[in-house]
């Protein structure tokens, strides 16, 4: 942060661009930066290329080597994040100790939130599959298989990371016909059947398999179509390595949701309010339910003959008498 | 095997939802995601991995697709569009929630008084020209007086008064005032945010106190001054009754002179004892402010050792530096 000079906008265009980088209530899609470390392997580069292709157009590829070791020092990642307004990173590394290494980093507010390290064990690139590919910018479906993604803290992080990476930005609407082209399938292997297994132990953690298929919806005779899948690649087998959990305070901040707008609340989001809605003109419309009307007190037609006379008629009589005397 | 048979087999393998799941597949339509929480079958996983993964994906994708097709749609010119619900899975945001914009001084005042904002139209109707003119800016209504060729001179105005330039300077003064207020608002907002976010800002040497804190400080200082003024009044026997009053000086309340009783009371101290008490107090110095003891400052010695050492050190340094450093600076 300190390395970046603060820009004072001199014209409206720059001002707008800076305003777009300010925190927003409804955020735009997270941008991912793909960056290479000092030494990478062919496999890692190809894996990154394919992951980049899947993340397009919200991805930036850095073609040069950078002396980055995310688990040791995150300052350069933070610099890149602020400079490019990006919050996801994939760093490719390769060393004897950790061959074909990918480090996924997530940022919050320009600082590192959490990290996970995946090793590439098996890889078949997108080009090796002789099949049609999905178009750029199409939102994938994502499916996760295995109970580990629900129970094991490390795999929970993997799930959160990968889901955030490709599908983190919530859409409000999507055309189902033509809007669904591919599905990313993430599967964790079964736990090894050894007695006294320690879940916290890093060794022998099941592999994670990433497969990508194109989806074809076939007519089934009912409203819900039948699905046909063809593998389009890439097909990657990951092993789970190091993981850095998020700082609790930071995670709490990042999980805060905005308060819902009034019109949203009335239309049923959050706590639903009964009988109040906002119409298409933005006017608030309320529905009232009244009790049954009490008809006994209703004023009917007034006629002389129906007049209710007061009971003591004695005074009237006296007056009459007086008149007669005069 | 027949080619058609092979194709049919392939179609069957890639289309049918082949697996029965004991746990229902959880779908999150808002994120277009599905979660199958059934443990992966170890035998299938070990023997034929890729077909098993395909079968798993088919099963869960089919579940996801059917949940998506059950959602409400709206029709558009380019076909039906499905409305997605809000995601059930919580994912971290990229940036914190935006902070509410700090109110300006006027906005704060208006809020307090319940004044609602009335938006001014940018254009106003000009009766003479019979057209809409800008309220401000180029050919603005607020510059009307400056371009006018005839001005009304009111009684009692100077003969050499230039109404056009007066109007212009008035307008410029209003702009300057507004800019000053704007700057003050921005500064106040910056102060507020810096005190709320970080305490490290004080190292920059700029006052980072908020308006409230400054106000509190001012109040405290005022109280202190008031108290010391009251104390100073006790110096005179009349308790400041005949002192020259300062303008707008607050009236002192609750301070009363005390007199000795004319007649010596029977109980308690006698007059002689009282007088002796006063003498004793003068002698021993009861009630005097004691000098604070520092470093080597003792009662008996009267020498401030620390100060002496410091002084000597300074002298030495000046002597040493002058001798070593400068060439022609030596004194004869």
3D architecture notes:
Chain B: Residues 182-232 are annotated as: Disordered. Chain B: Belongs to the RRS1 family. Chain B: Residues 182-204 have a biased composition (Low complexity). Chain B: This is Ribosome biogenesis regulatory protein. Chain B: InterPro entries: Ribosom_reg (IPR007023). The complex is a heterodimer of chains A (326) and B (332). The longest helix of chain A is centred in the middle third of the chain and has 15 residues, at 153-167. In chain A, the strands form two sheets. Chain A has a nine-stranded mixed β-sheet. Chain A has a two-stranded antiparallel ribbon with strand order 11-12. Chain A has a domain at 29-192 and 203-243: Rossmann fold. Chain A is elongated. Chain A contains nine helices and twelve strands. Chain A is of the alpha/beta class and 326 residues long. Chain B is mainly alpha-helical. Among the domains of chain B are: 3-74, no CATH class; 186-192 and 208-232. Helices cover 44% and strands 7% of the residues of chain B. Chain B has nine helices and six strands. Chain B has helices spanning 3-15, 42-47, 49-69, 105-113, 144-147, 163-197, 211-233, 271-284, 305-325, and strands at 26-28, 33-36, 73-76, 79-83, 123-126, 131-134. In chain B, the strands form three sheets. Chain B has a two-stranded antiparallel sheet with strand order 1-2. In chain B, strand 1 (26-28) and strand 2 form a beta hairpin. Chain B is flat. Mean pLDDT of chain B is 78; it is low at 198-207, 294-299 and 322-332. The chains are: A alpha/beta (326), B mainly alpha (332). Chains A and B meet through strand 4, strand 6, helix 5, strand 7 and helix 6 of A and helix 1, strand 2, helix 3 and strand 4 of B. Strand 7 (173-174) of chain A pairs antiparallel with strand 4 of chain B.
Q: What top-tier CATH class of one domain in chain A fits best?
A: Alpha Beta
Percentage of residues assigned to helices of chain A: 10-25%
Structural class by secondary-structure content of chain B: mainly alpha
Terminal-residue CA separation of chain A: 111 Å
Largest sheet of chain A: 9 strands, mixed
Spans of chain A with pLDDT under 50 lasting ≥5 residues? 315-326
User: Strands of the largest sheet of chain A, in order across it?
Assistant: 2-1-3-4-5-10-9-8-6
> Over the alpha carbons, how many angstroms does the gyration radius of chain B reach?
45 Å
Q: Helix count of chain A, per DSSP?
A: 9
Largest sheet: spatial strand order of chain B: 1-2
CATH topology of one domain in chain A: Rossmann fold
Q: Overall 3D geometry of chain A?
A: elongated
Average per-residue pLDDT of chain A, rounded, comes to 84
Distance from first to last alpha carbon of chain B: 121 Å
Q: Roughly what is the average pLDDT of chain B, rounded to an integer? A: 78
């Amino acid at each position: 942060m300190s390395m970046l000079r603060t820009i004072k906008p001199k014209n409206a265009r720059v001002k707008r661009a800076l305003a777009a980088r300010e925190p927003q209530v409804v955020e735009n899609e997270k941008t991912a930066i793909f960056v290479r470390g000092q030494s990478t392997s062919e496999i890692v580069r190809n894996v990154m290329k394919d992951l980049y292709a899947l993340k397009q157009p919200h991805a930036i590829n850095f073609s040069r080597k950078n002396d980055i070791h995310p688990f040791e020092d995150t300052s350069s990642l933070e610099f890149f994040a602020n400079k490019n307004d990006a919050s996801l990173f994939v760093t490719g590394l390769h060393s004897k100790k950790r061959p074909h290494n990918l480090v996924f980093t997530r940022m919050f507010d320009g600082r590192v939130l959490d990290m996970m390290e995946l090793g590439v064990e098996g890889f078949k690139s997108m080009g090796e599959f002789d099949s049609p590919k999905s178009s750029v910018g199409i939102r994938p479906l994502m499916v996760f298989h295995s109970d580990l993604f629900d129970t094991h803290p490390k795999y929970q992080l993997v799930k959160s990371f990968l889901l955030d990476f490709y599908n983190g930005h919530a859409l409000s609407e999507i055309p189902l016909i033509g809007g669904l082209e591919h599905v990313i399938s993430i599967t964790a292997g079964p736990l090894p059947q050894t007695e006294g297994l320690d879940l916290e132990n890093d060794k022998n953690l099941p592999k994670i398999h990433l497969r990508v298929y194109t989806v074809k919806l076939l007519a089934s005779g009912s409203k819900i179509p039948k699905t046909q899948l063809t593998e389009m690649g890439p097909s990657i087998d990951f092993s789970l390595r190091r993981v850095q959990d998020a700082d609790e305070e930071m995670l709490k901040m990042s999980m805060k949701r905005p308060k819902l707008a009034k019109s949203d609340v009335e239309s049923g989001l959050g706590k639903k309010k009964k009988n109040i809605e906002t119409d298409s003109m933005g006017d608030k419309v309320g529905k009232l339910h009244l009790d049954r009307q009490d008809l006994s007190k209703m004023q009917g037609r007034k006629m002389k003959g129906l007049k209710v006379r007061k009971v003591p008629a004695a005074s009237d009589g006296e007056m009459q008498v007086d008149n007669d005397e005069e | 095997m027949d080619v058609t048979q092979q194709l049919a087999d392939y179609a069957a393998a890639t289309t049918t939802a082949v697996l029965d799941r004991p746990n229902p597949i959880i779908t999150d339509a808002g994120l277009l995601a599905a979660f199958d929480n059934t443990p992966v079958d170890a035998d299938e996983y070990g023997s034929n991995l890729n077909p098993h993964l395909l079968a798993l994906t088919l099963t869960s994708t089919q579940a996801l697709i059917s949940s998506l097709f059950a959602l409400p749609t709206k029709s558009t010119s380019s076909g039906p569009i499905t409305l997605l619900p809000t995601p059930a899975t919580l994912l971290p945001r990229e940036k914190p929630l935006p902070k509410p914009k700090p109110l300006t001084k006027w906005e704060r005042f208006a809020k307090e008084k319940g004044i609602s904002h009335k938006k001014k139209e940018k254009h106003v109707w000009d009766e003479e020209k019979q057209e809409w003119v800008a309220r401000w800016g180029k050919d603005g209504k607020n510059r009307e007086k400056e371009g006018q060729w005839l001005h009304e001179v009111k009684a009692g105005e100077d003969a050499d008064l230039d109404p056009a330039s007066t109007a212009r300077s008035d307008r410029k003064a209003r702009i300057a005032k507004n800019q000053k207020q704007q700057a003050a608002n921005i500064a106040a907002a910056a102060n507020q945010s810096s005190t709320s976010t970080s305490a490290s800002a004080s190292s920059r040497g700029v006052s980072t106190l908020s308006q409230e804190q400054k106000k509190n400080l001012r109040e405290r200082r005022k109280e202190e001054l008031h108290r010391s003024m009251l104390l100073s009044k006790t110096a005179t026997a009349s308790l400041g009754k005949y002192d020259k009053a300062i303008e707008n000086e607050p009236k002192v309340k609750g301070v009363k002179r005390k007199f000795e009783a004319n007649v010596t009371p029977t109980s308690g101290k006698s007059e002689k004892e009282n007088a002796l008490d006063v003498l004793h107090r003068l002698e021993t110095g009861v009630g005097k402010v004691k000098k604070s003891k520092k470093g080597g400052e003792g009662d008996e010695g009267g020498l401030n050792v620390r100060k002496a050492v410091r002084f000597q050190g300074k002298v030495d340094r000046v002597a040493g530096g002058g001798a070593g450093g400068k060439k022609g600076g030596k004194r004869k």
